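User: Can you write out an input/output pair for a complex, sequences first and structure second?

Assistant: Here is one pair. Inputs:
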Amino acid sequence: MSEVITYFQNIKDTVSSIFEGMSITFSHFVRKPSTVQYPDRIAQQVQDTLPLRYRGILEVDMDICTGCLACERVCPINCIAIGIERNAETNQRDFTLFDIDICKCMYCGLCMEACPTGSIRHTQEFEGACNNPAGLVRHFVTENVPLYKPKKGGETETRMIQKVDIGKRYMDEIAEPES
Amino acid sequence: MEFTVQDLIQALLPGAIPAPVGYPLAAILVAFAVLSAFVAPLAGVTSWLERRVWARMQSRVGPNRVGPQGILQWLADGVKNIQKEDIIPASADRKLFLLAPYIVFAGFIGAFVVIPFGSWLIPADLNIGILYLLAITSLAVVGILMAGWSSNNKWSLLGGMRSAAQIVSYEIPAGLSVLTVIFLSGTLSMQGIIQAQGWAPQDWFIFYNPFTLVAFFMFFTSALAEGNRTPFDIPEAESELVAGYVTEYSGMRFLFFFFAEWGNLYVIGAITTTLFLGGWQIPATIFGVTMAEHPLAKGVLEFTVFFVKSYLWVLVAMWIRGTLPRVRVDQLMAMCWKYMVPIAFVCLFGTIVLLVIWPDGNPALSLATLGFTTLVLVYFMWRVVYQIMHSRPELYLKPYV
């Protein structure tokens, strides 16, 4: 007798569970999909939503780089290459090369911590895809530029004041491990 | 359609070509035209729609990049698969391996011969239509078994064997449910079955009496099982059998199997509509317009009614696929032999008994069955509303994303 009861119980369970399951899937059918359609069909660029401390692809502001080579030395995998030559005409030292190989970079952030002026910085940029790995080497020196020397008594040019300020703020707020 | 095709052939047949050559040639041309103009887009769009429907049920978006809302995704998939290499395993039974997809495909496409899209739109109204349909759809199992055997791969063989066992078993509840309808209509012809029903829901065979309502569910479930659809897709259970009998196939041959599967979905819907849901039946007069006076409008309306009804069941099959998990082999067999076959028999005998009592049917009983179904649907909608209210999700009612 118990088998007969189980038999009809099984039929009832099948019908009621399918009924309930179908109502749940139908209610999901009218819900908003949670998919983010990266990269083109999104309300806001992902870069804009990332936090300031996000360690993206490195950038260097050559105008406030002193050429101290601290970043090159501290880099554990030697992805930063800096070339400095003395310019015979102006008798000053010029950058001839400042390359960062993004392929190698592991985004450890040691270089930006070591930088005395805050010129090497992590950006929010993370989309590095390109057809050739050589395209991932970022060249920051296109023509020879002189090294930055901080002026005694502070900067006078508005443009330079801003740049130094940005670097200083970056150092204080983001690059300092303790901050 | 049969008259139209006949007229067309006679009008276009040049006198120089003898009829025994001309007729098969013209028939092949017509079949090719129907295949490429109706069946291929139907199966293709169904594959795209199915992916979109599942996706929405799983809070995803689905393919929406190729063409507007991804509607041309099936063309892109087809072009991709044509370009792919047709790999034949070195130790495969070459002839059978090459032949198998065509057998499966022929079994599916042959079903379109007797599908009544309208009162005159049927390729051939055979007087044994439904019998032919049961026979021709079983041809697929030969191809599946052939594919499984000739691939010389354990997954393929297991998939083919499972499929054979499954289709042969589920033929029985399906056949018994069809027999219930045949008792009511008294004919095996597809048009005859539709003509025995009316346009109003209470005149449909599904609501004829409570037993036919159950027989309808038995038929739809067994048809899904015969079409290897989830939750009965154990022949291609990817968690156990890689891809089952299609494991060794690639490129266009692989596509043929899935073409047949998605096209078969529509065939299932069409048979269900024909047998239980009144087919193409429309009222004789709509808003005072006698439909018989406007043959073209009548034909279009009939086709629309039939297509909408049958595609509804395609959508339900997608919905089931998005809901139920795959059953195990032993569960599948137990469900068929222990539950569905006895229930189908009960439906058959119940209908016979009721036929003896009321040979012409009982309108009150039909209305009661219809009312009961409506109540169940209302309760179902309430459950859906409850699920939505319970979890307070963000609703998104637009079909596009």
